[in-house]
Amino acid sequence: MKDSIIPLFPIPISRIIVPNKLASIIPFLDSQEMNLDNANKEGLNHFGSRSKNTYILDESECKLFKDFILKNVKKYSSEILGTHKIEYKFSQSWISYKDPGQSHIEHTHPNSYISGVFYYGGTKNSAPSIQFHSPLHKMYYQIYVPLNMNKPSSEFNYNTFSVPYEPGTLILFPSWLPHSVPINNTSQVRKSLSFNCVPLNSLGDEEDLTELKF
């Protein structure tokens, strides 16, 4: 027997490389009209802008890309999250722009089970990463203890973790996981397609008396 560290309750994030053959969807995504009317300058700086269409993946032009995402959502759900025989559908899907100087404050995606983002604009390693936040660092019982800044951090003491912005990648994560986008300090627009997924027909289980049909 040896002393060991147990990585208890890890939070899985899936990073998927999108095949080049699906890049044909990008002109359609770029054609979407952005919604700037419902936010003032301060709001735009903290959220960026989004498309007027918030059901983009329901459009016929997105059929192949939609099928690709749902296939990976199902795989992530069953093989990583351990769910049983669940099919998924998109609740909403929208384009998000972060112009130079803009960011997106920390948030979650309510009324959703699995969320995701597809990166398709900007240059690799230049646009700001998506930053995930540990839900534990805001728990009321936590006390402040100074960290040793001379010692490299590890997965056991992260409060935040960034996944680099790389065009052509798809990121899947639990919808309850807090995340944000730091300020875009580049001269380019950071472009992404975001979406939420829910089970196709119901939640819960009939035998357990927890079923909720849609």
Please tell me about this protein's structure.
With 214 residues, this protein is an alpha+beta fold. The model has no long low-confidence stretch (mean pLDDT 87). It starts with 13 loop residues before the first strand and ends with a strand. It has helices at residues 26-30, 41-47, 63-80; strands at 14-17, 34-35, 49-51, 88-98, 104-107, 114-119, 130-133, 160-163, 169-174, 179-181, 190-199, 202-203, 212-213. The chain has a single domain (14-148, 157-213), classed as Sandwich (Jelly Rolls). Helix content is 14%, strand content 29%. The chain has a seven-stranded antiparallel beta sheet with strand order 1-9-6-11-4-3-2. The chain has a four-stranded antiparallel beta sheet with strand order 5-10-7-8.
Features:
Jelly Rolls; alpha+beta; seven-stranded antiparallel beta sheet; 13 strands; 214 residues; 14% helix
Please work out how many helical segments DSSP would assign.
Answer: 3
Helix/strand structural class = alpha+beta
- CATH topology grouping: Jelly Rolls
Identify the quaternary structure here: single chain
